[in-house]
Design brief:
Layout lengths: L2 H4 L3 H25 L4 E5 L13 E2 L3 E6 L3 E6 L7 H20 L2 E7 L1 E3 L25 H10 L4 E4 L5 E6 H13 L9 E5 L2 E4 H12 L3 E4 L12 E2 L2 H5 L9 H13 L17 H10 L1 H6 L2 H11 L3 H12 L1
Parallel strand pairs: 1-5, 2-12, 5-9, 6-8, 7-11
Antiparallel strand pairs: 3-4, 8-10
Helix pairs in contact: 2-3, 4-6, 4-8, 11-12
């Protein structure tokens, strides 16, 4: 499902492993049993590489190394999962390597960045084709989450320092890259094809400031529920897709305006109680987050928060005054 969901509790951790890894293995086994020449395209995640500072450009899947005894080899880039969800994607990679070697399956693995945006050229033609828009702390991707918070005039919640650098891709490019992968399968017997499906990288705090400057909504740093580096660099190779003719869509205020308008149009459907983090990577992170939000966590319930938003009628300053009054 998603990284935060996979870290919520022991039940969601077990479900994530059983569902993700079991589902992938079922597909692989079924393809072998079918005796058909099927090309598997797996939509994975950049999270398999981890989010520390790599010290250089992350290649597309493989690296050439020199093993002890002066032996040359090409291996998968080391995996550093940052959640149980990301760990399942690493396990998928191992399964792909085995089935390619053992049964010569044709497999493409797409290491996708964080998706933003709401529409493709197809879905924008009719409102009935509109995509889902996740804004909550478990499923909402960071940029879409900021844009929904802005529509609600809710402070943009930046985890920690906001120095986390992440890879991003517009939803229209996601569809385009999948099509390119399907149209360009690896030859039978060839290594698993791996693409880094990303357009660009940005620091989270820079994205928050961009949205804040567009909308006038303030940025609020809160304790980070994730167990990750406070600051990191991220440089990613994406030359394979570009070699197939892909020109990435990069962050554009016009496209952001479109998402802001979508968020504003449907903001009445938003459950504001779902905005703050509800999944924590470990007990230490949970304790830090509770301490950071101690006053409001103790005296302002989700129902209170809904009432305060109704009373403030979109006025952020009035909302903060009402919160303060209730807390006291």
């Amino acid at each position: 499902r998603a990284a935060p969901y996979s870290q919520k509790n022991s039940a969601t951790k077990r479900y994530t492993v059983e569902n993700n890894v079991g589902g992938t293995h079922n597909v692989l086994a079924a393809v072998v049993e079918s005796n058909l020449d099927i090309h598997i395209v797996h939509l994975g995640t950049m999270g398999v590489y981890g989010y520390g500072t790599a010290g250089g450009e992350i290649p597309e899947g493989y690296i050439d190394v020199l093993l002890p005894g002066n032996r040359s080899s090409r291996i998968l880039h080391p995996m550093y999962p940052g959640s149980v969800y990301h760990a399942t994607k690493c396990l998928d990679q191992i399964l792909f390597q085995f089935y390619q070697k053992n049964d010569e399956l044709r497999i493409t693995d797409l290491h996708q960045g964080i998706v933003w945006g709401t529409n493709t050229k197809q879905t924008i033609k009719d409102e009935r084709l509109i995509n889902r828009f996740d804004y909550d702390s478990d499923y909402g991707t960071v940029l879409n989450r900021f844009l929904m918070q802005a529509a609600l005039e809710y402070p943009l919640t930046v985890y920690g320092t906001g120095g986390q650098t992440r890879a991003f891709i517009h939803i229209q490019d996601t569809a385009k890259c999948i099509a390119l992968a399907v149209e360009n399968p690896p030859a039978r017997g060839a290594l698993v094809e791996i693409f880094n499906q990303v357009a660009e990288t940005h620091r989270v705090r820079d994205l928050a400031q961009l949205v804040s400057s567009m909308t006038g909504v303030e940025v609020k740093n809160i304790a980070n529920p994730r167990n990750e580096a406070a600051e990191n660099e991220l440089k990613v190779a994406n030359r394979k897709f570009q070699g197939l003719g892909w020109t990435p869509i990069t962050l554009d205020t016009g496209l952001l305006d479109e998402v802001v308008n979508i968020a504003a149009k449907y903001k009445e459907r938003c459950d504001i109680s779902k905005v703050k983090p509800s999944s924590f990577w470990n007990k230490k992170r949970a304790s830090e987050c509770v301490q950071d939000n101690k006053t409001t966590a103790e005296v302002i319930t989700a129902e209170d928060e809904k009432l305060l938003h109704a009373l403030s009628k979109g006025n952020t300053e009035k909302l903060e005054k009402l919160r303060a009054a209730l807390a006291n």
